[in-house]
């Protein structure tokens, strides 16, 4: 297939060939056709060039820019992304097979993230700490950090790009973003829009796989790195940062999110929402609720309704060609992801009971059936590890305490869902669940103004909202000592002259006082000088 899109890297507002001369290949997961075998992969010299460009922009044209001008540039960029959302989405759909409707939504959310953070660019204030018995007056300034880097996973390159770059820019930093090698084309196509809105070096985009990511995480001039991807890679990022310049790190990692469905839940709603979360992006969503814990009295009813919800998607022909506008569910992202999901299906069949799906779907493309297992052994890999595909396990419980214990029995802590009609129970259980986000009577989907991120081995740091901006700011505290200030500005010579005049005045006062005293004493002793 002829290359009808950009495959080079984008540095200093220009597309350039990678000096590394390395290229990589992308095939369509929908039908196996070649998308490109010429995607440039950034090496050490390319990363150095991107850092140099970003450093210059940070020290000058972007970093020293009036915040209101920064906001205007970001608003404009947001509008351009919004206008071209579907064209950009098409490029990611070609590469990683997610439905074009889903990826278009991703670019619209990315545009909204730029709008949201543009609005905050001129509202970054510090604080003043007044003199107290424990110290003098202090001003706390919130300053940008410098050159920041972002590394994305492949499931929604658009949102991951915006989550990292928009708050970085709003805070006055500059950015280098590496999209995943499985879905780099849409973000890479932003080059002309970046050039239209920002000074050279403000946003740089470098393609490549793990080796390129490692160069960013290890770079001595990069001050902050925000990573989205697997927990295993997140550990490496932290290690590279520690071994290089101790750059700041934020990690948005994997999940194995639980969904607790209580006996008083609206079972129809729970089934519809579970199906939606399992099928959206073909289950390749970090916050997908992949472990369902359901009260034993409603489990069979729930599974029946879940099957109906999956069948309904099939009946309206919404699984298939990801470029068709009516498609809701496409193939998995690539052969490696397909093989991984199929291997989990085999584990599920051995360690549990297959109730829905369980195989590849059709013979063309990397499609799999939505799959449900029940009664899976608790220590089975499919019960513990992230599958990142349309596969869930269902297990029954009897009591609230048991449900909480099961939900927390994981190394992950990204997100959770609770289905119940009792708000008191929902809030009580929310307090006990060890995750960064919880949805009640829904599955969790991040929004612009709220922080999103994990606890435990799902990572740390937050994206979205004010918390997301704070990750790109550092404080500087300035202490002020109060000193007596002369009424007018005077030179040292003026002061010395003043001191001399002061001395003369004082001398004359003292003399007149002394003379006066002498006169008084003379008078008192009959005109005799006594001292
Ligand atoms: P991955 O860890 O394999 O790759 C993620 C990114 O890291 C890619 O850009 C890749 O090129 C890069 N990378 C790989 N090895 C590297 C190394 N040694 N040094 C530096 N960079 C390296 O993950 P993936 O398969 O692309 O994405 C799926 C994972 O992402 C899942 O675990 C999913 O849960 C997670 N995810 C999390 C969130 C979140 O917000 N928490 C969002 C989306 C995806």
Automatic annotation (TrEMBL):
Catalytic activity: an aldehyde + NAD(+) + H2O = a carboxylate + NADH + 2 H(+)
GO terms for MF: aldehyde dehydrogenase (NAD+) activity
Enzyme class label: oxidoreductase
InterPro entries associated with the record: Ald_DH/histidinol_DH (IPR016161), Ald_DH_C (IPR016163), Ald_DH_CS_GLU (IPR029510), Ald_DH_N (IPR016162), Aldehyde_DH_dom (IPR015590)
Residue ranges of domain Aldehyde dehydrogenase in the record: 15-478
EC number, as in UniProt: 1.2.1.3
Name the record gives this protein: aldehyde dehydrogenase (NAD(+))
Species of provenance: Exophiala mesophila
């Amino acid at each position: 297939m002829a290359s009808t899109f950009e495959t080079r890297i984008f540095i200093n507002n220009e597309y350039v060939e990678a000096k590394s001369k390395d290229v990589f290949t992308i095939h369509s997961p929908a039908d196996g056709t070649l998308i490109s075998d010429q995607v440039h992969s950034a090496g050490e010299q390319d990363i150095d060039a991107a850092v140099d460009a970003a450093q210059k922009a940070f020290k000058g044209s972007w970093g020293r820019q009036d915040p209101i001008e920064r906001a205007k540039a970001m608003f404009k960029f947001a509008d351009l992304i919004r206008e071209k959302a579907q064209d950009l989405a098409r490029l990611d759909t070609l590469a990683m097979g997610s439905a074009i409707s889903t990826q278009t939504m991703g670019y619209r959310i990315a545009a909204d993230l730029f709008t949201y953070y543009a609005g905050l660019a001129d509202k970054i204030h510090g604080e003043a700490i007044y003199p107290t018995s424990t110290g003098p007056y202090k001003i706390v300034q919130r300053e940008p950090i410098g050159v920041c880097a972002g590394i994305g996973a492949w499931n929604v390159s658009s949102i991951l790009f915006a989550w990292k770059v928009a708050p970085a820019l709003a805070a006055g930093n500059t950015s280098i973003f590496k999209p995943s090698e499985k879905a780099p084309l849409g973000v890479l196509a932003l080059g002309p829009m970046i050039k239209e809105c920002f000074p050279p070096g403000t946003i740089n985009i470098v393609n490549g796989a793990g080796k390129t990511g490692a160069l960013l995480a290890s770079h001595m001039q990069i001050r902050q790195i925000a990573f989205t991807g697997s927990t295993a890679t997140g550990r490496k990022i932290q290690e590279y940062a520690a071994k290089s310049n101790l750059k700041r790190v934020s990690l948005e990692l994997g999940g194995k999110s639980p969904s607790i469905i209580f006996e008083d839940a609206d079972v129809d709603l729970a089934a519809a929402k579970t199906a939606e979360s399992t099928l959206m992006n073909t289950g390749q969503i970090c916050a997908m609720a992949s472990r369902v814990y359901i009260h034993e009295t409603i489990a069979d009813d729930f599974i029946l309704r879940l099957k109906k919800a999956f069948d309904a998607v099939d009946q309206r022909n919404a699984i298939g060609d990801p470029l068709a506008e009516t498609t809701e569910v496409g193939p998995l992202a690539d052969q490696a992801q397909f093989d991984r999901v199929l291997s989990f299906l085999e584990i599920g069949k051995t360690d549990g009971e297959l109730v829905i799906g369980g195989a590849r779907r059709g013979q063309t493309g990397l499609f799999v059936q939505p799959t449900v297992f029940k009664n899976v052994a608790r220590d089975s890999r499919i019960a513990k590890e992230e599958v990142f595909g349309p596969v869930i396990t269902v297990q029954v419980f009897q009591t609230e305490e048991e449900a909480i214990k099961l939900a927390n029995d994981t190394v992950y802590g990204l997100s959770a869902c609770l289905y119940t009609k009792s708000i008191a129970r929902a809030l009580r259980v929310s307090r006990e669940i060890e995750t960064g986000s919880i949805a009640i009577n829904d599955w969790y989907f991040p929004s612009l103004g709220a922080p999103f991120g994990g606890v435990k081995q799902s990572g740390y740091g937050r994206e979205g909202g004010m918390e997301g901006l704070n990750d790109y700011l550092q404080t500087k505290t300035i202490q002020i000592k109060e000193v007596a200030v002369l009424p007018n500005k005077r030179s040292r010579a003026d002061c010395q002259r003043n001191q001399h005049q002061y001395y003369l005045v004082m001398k004359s006062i003292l003399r007149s006082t002394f003379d006066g005293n002498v006169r008084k004493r003379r008078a008192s002793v009959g005109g005799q000088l006594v001292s």
